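TICKET #2291
ISSUE: user wants both folds in one file
ATTACHMENT 1:
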Amino acid sequence: MQKILNNLRYDLPASVVVFFVALPLCLGVALASGAPLLSGIISGIVGGIICGKISGSQLGVSGPAAGLAIIVFNYITALGSFESFLVATMLAGIIQIIMGSLKLGTIAYYFPSSVIKGMLCGIGIIIIIKQIPHALGYDTNIAKDFENYLDQSIATTFNETIQNLTPNAIIISIISLTILIVWENYISKKVRKLKILPAPLIVVVIGIIMSKFVDLANHQIVQLPLFSDGKDFLNQISRPNFEALKNPAIYEMALVIAIVASIETLLCVEATDKLDPMKRITPTNLELKAQGISNFLSGLFGGLPITQIIVRSSANISFGAKSKNSTILHGFFLLICALAIPNILNMIPLASLASILLIVGYKLSHPKIFLKTYKLGYEQFVPFITTIIAMIVFDLLKGVMLGMLISVIFILLHNFRNAYERTIDQEGKNHQHFINLAEEVSFLNKGAILQLLNNIPENSRVTIDGTKSKIIDYDIYEIIKDFQSNAKSKSIELTLKGINLNKI
């Protein structure tokens, strides 16, 4: 108890900052997801209070993630209702609990970094595309079907753009973007005391003030339900439609959500542990269970899928948090906010939230990431760019699968090339060929080794050394035995080291 009280003087101020960062992002992620805005607040509450309590991460902060927004948007559209999607979120939570129980906390390490970078960049680009209508104040019908809008001819698109622009929304977006860029890059760096005020909160406050002086349509501002008390709050939240369990697609959706949410969480856990001044290590299997329980409860109570989030976690660390109490307190602040001041939240222009998300999307898909990956070589860049393009053209799952496929092809090519090391001593009449096999020689190397042995000239001396090999596939033994059988007919003197052909 004494330790909690000692840490509270650090955790309380940090929790206030995290709350200020989380509030606009909770609303913004819900907006990008095409879900009720209240669902973003609910998932923030669950991520803070429930996940914060169960998790072994002392400084990590969980909540609705921008990285899942596009998946959520597409799945809500495919299922036809947010209530049906909540079932997928609950199932995803169950899958994560199972993953944690099976000790799959290292799953993120089996995805190539190029594919993960491509996935995050693709998400950033799609977020930008989907927030343009809200930033420009387009009519809601166009905003809901923006992809079809982009598919129209240039002339038609231009004409409809002019007709559906909302100047007031554009002004708010321009001012919001300016504040976000200037505040984060200049003001907060030069005036250290102002660093405690996160730029998204400033944007939201300015947006509320501006909404009092400009005309905006109802669909261009936040519309949270108003609650008379806690019971009324519970009565008005969305409930899962368990009829969706009859839809086979719901299980595939749940699996995708669970995998992507787990990867995002585990990557964030790794980054957060590195930032922790005390260098505490988060138990990843426990983290998966905590995220799973939280996602199950978030879906049950009408919230979005949850992951641990680096933006909030790094803010928590930067402002001196010492324990998980900071995370838990920020969850209670979100709960109090939803119950006490929904009328104030309903004054926030969607253009303000869209501007915040445009910056989030830009950071996820920053041009420097493309340039840096390109400089790493084509073996990193090709899977990276393939993932991005496939995500935009198809969807996230197909994008990641295609990126993984390209990465596997490069691995196989490496394996094909590095099956052996060959040296030739050309002194004397009979050339001496030394062939040192790699540590692992599989059937994939069959063609390369067969071609090598077939091209050895007559009257040569050949030494095949497998002493360093840990695994030699049966197919390779067969090739070597056949070569041994034919060697005499070509006057080839063969010596084997570390290779026991009696196995076949």
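ATTACHMENT 2:
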Amino acid sequence: MLAVKQRVLGPEHPDTLTTMNNLAGLYRDQGEYSPARSLFTGVLEVRRRVLGPEHAHTLISMNNLGLLYQYERKYAHAESLLSKTYQVRRRVLGQDHPDTLLSINNLAFLYANEGKYDSAEPLYLQVIAAQARVLGRQHPRRLATMNDLAALYLKRHKYTLAEPLLRDALNDFQNTNMTTWARYRCESLLGAIAVAQNRYAEAEPLLLSGYDGLVNTQQTIPWERRPVIRECAEWIVQLYETSARPDKAAKWREKVPALHGDLQPSIR
């Protein structure tokens, strides 16, 4: 398909570039990062030259390549692209535009994966407040960002900050009958907090429900977030190990190596 479009439409036609971008996404999802990077880079170079460095499609390509670099743990390259994308969107679209907020969230996610928690936390707080104004308090993006901030707090053992954030988010998921993957991640995070505080009876149903929900919705989980399934399974192993149930721990430990995703979890 790509070869046909390149021959018939030309290598710089918008439809050709869209096909290249989609093929790059397919390679990325299959873990074939080198061909994905080559295609993403090629699309970005053409869009910069033909559309300009501030065109919406150019910024999407910058974001795609930045996220791929993050997946490859090439954090310096990722930070450069994601920061530039944010700066342009803020200047061209405004601080509260949904695309700008998405860029801030991507930067916070990157910083969290790098372990730069002091840089990530204020960005998450900024986004959550802006999402409430712009998108509404129960918007799926806002609830997902609340999950991310709670995950950061969990990593830093700030359970008293993480738990109310997650309970508020889960209440909104339930009130709106939302059954997205983010809802089940919310459950798994609450379960992980309960494990960390030795509340095992409370943790078990949350983690098991969270895991089942994540597995059932895995096709809708963005590629850079799919390690949350493995993360939840690891918390279940921890639950059974720390609550002295070695047989169940061993059963779940066998599942972990086979789970999809080699990106470091959002909590490191």
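RESOLUTION: both attachments delivered.
EXTRA DETAIL ON ATTACHMENT 2: Residues 1-93 form a domain with the Serine Threonine Protein Phosphatase 5, Tetratricopeptide repeat fold (CATH 1.25.40.10).
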